[in-house]
Amino acid sequence: MLAELSIKNFAIIDELHIPFQKGLTVLTGETGAGKSIIIDAVGLLIGGRGSVEYVRHGEKKAELEGLFIIDDTKHAVYQKAKELGIDIMEDHMLVLHRTISHSGKSICRINGKLTTLAILKEIGQTVLDIHSQHETQALLNQDKHIELLDYFYQSNHSNFKNHYQKLYQHWKELKYKYEANNKNEQELAQRIDLLEFQLNEIQNADLQPNEDIVLTDERNKLHHFETIHKNLNDAYNALHGEQKGLDWLSHAANNLEEAGEHNKDIQKLQQQYVDHYYLIEEISYQIRQHLENMDYEPGRLELIESRLHEIDQLKRKYGQSVEEIMTYSAKIEEELDEIKNRDQHLANLSEMVQEAANDLLLEAKELHNIRKKAAKQLEKAVLMELKDLYLEKTNFQVDVFIPSKEKGIPFEGKNVRPHEDGIDQVRFLISTNPGEPVKELDRIASGGEMSRIMLALKNIFSKHQGITSVIFDEVDTGVSGRVAQAMADKIYNISVGSQVLCITHLPQVASIADTHLKIEKVVKQNRTHTTIQELSFNQRIDEIGKMITGAELTETSRTHAKELIEMNHKR
């Protein structure tokens, strides 16, 4: 649930800290008081599109922060956070933060860690869902209907599209490869010339594995030849010769040997000493051998520099190392072979594309059959919800069909065009009057009917969605009377399983809430400010009384408001 929201320098809000409770919370107030601004702030907090216009006039930045508490460790947000490398606190707290500067820059944080807007959106929309009048309008877009139907079925069958989508991706990749290889002759000839030039250049260089590393090491040694030779020579001379290091070490060995003849402990010490003496003597021989093998060739350094320059030129074109250059060489050699044997290669690719398409269409047909069954289940569920919302005479249908396309793949007597979700198209059809044929939503439903249809779908989906908080922004527009009470009941039912925040102008919805927040706009020192207050029982009666009359508060409206609150809380 959303436990607390902090807003600073956002639109007409200078600073607000709003604690939220479980259950249903309503926000009421006069038009323009800032109710929708608060919802806008929440929308930006979960990844919505920002704008410099949201920054309060005269301020450098707007700051938004929300504290979410997700007690259920099996909630989808935990898996999503794990995938994105985000740690959720041990006390199940998730803090989302967003800053929008007056220059338009946006800074996002999750639990104090900087993140991208895309990741903020992924996490945010896992825990909170905003339903507004705009979303109701989105229901009129038929392209969204397949998403809604799939979500309804997917709630209980989470992987039902996975196999199809893997086949679709495989088919797309093969199709792209076929089209890329099926270019015109002039493009292919130009491509062959380029690849042959590059391949010849690399092959003529006769590169050896790790050659650049080996040569660089040898160059370093040659650059420091004199220093290395002098130091090795000095080291050897320090060890060998009369009155040199080994001579004195040998002398010490003799002294220890004589002393050891009279003391067993010194005998052991002398043996250890002798072992180390022989080791140093062996090292001195290796130093001498290294010196004898050192041979400076003045021309060798010049050859190495020339070769490394040649390799560097190739690196600028084909890779950061000799290994990458050789890998690139193998790649273009394979591409050349494919182009030169294009006809056979295209035939093979065409066969593979066709096989992939056949598998894809079989799986798409299976998806189609699943959707047909799911459509009947969704129709039944929606009609039951609409009956509660006094649309019992409504005929609601989910039409699942396979459209014929002018350019597509032949399938069952028509041409079809696969997309990410299959080959289906889905339409929600409705008739609100008995005897009238079903038609598209935008041709039949009024504003009030659309609000009820959307609320019916939201009530169905909220049971499976796993969203911890749902926000309704004036979804009750266009309804009144018993319909308003029915919508209030539906909204309250959703709050049983998820925290619900609801902006409303309906007394029926306000009276059924667990918490009532009043938002007001005040002017102080010639600046507009937004305030928020949690209402007591008596204050709720006054506020709802005003909502009933739409004007001044009267004793009759107060009595009606009190009865409405008491009636709704006895349910």
Automatic annotation (TrEMBL):
Gene this chain is encoded by: recN
Gene Ontology molecular-function annotations: ATP binding
Entry protein name: DNA repair protein RecN
Gene3D superfamilies attached to this UniProt entry: P-loop containing nucleotide triphosphate hydrolases
Entry's family note: Belongs to the RecN family.
Signal peptide range in chain numbering: none
A UniProt-annotated Pfam family: SMC_N
InterPro entries named in the record: DNA_recomb/repair_RecN, P-loop_NTPase, RecF/RecN/SMC_N
Taxonomic source organism: Gracilibacillus thailandensis
Superkingdom per UniProt: Bacteria
Gene Ontology cellular component terms for the protein in this record: bacterial nucleoid
Biological process per Gene Ontology, one example term: DNA recombination
Keyword terms of this UniProt record: ATP-binding, DNA damage, DNA repair, Nucleotide-binding
UniProt keyword annotation of Zinc present: no
Protein role: May be involved in recombinational repair of damaged DNA.
Domain (RecF/RecN/SMC N-terminal) ranges: 2-524
Transmembrane segments: none
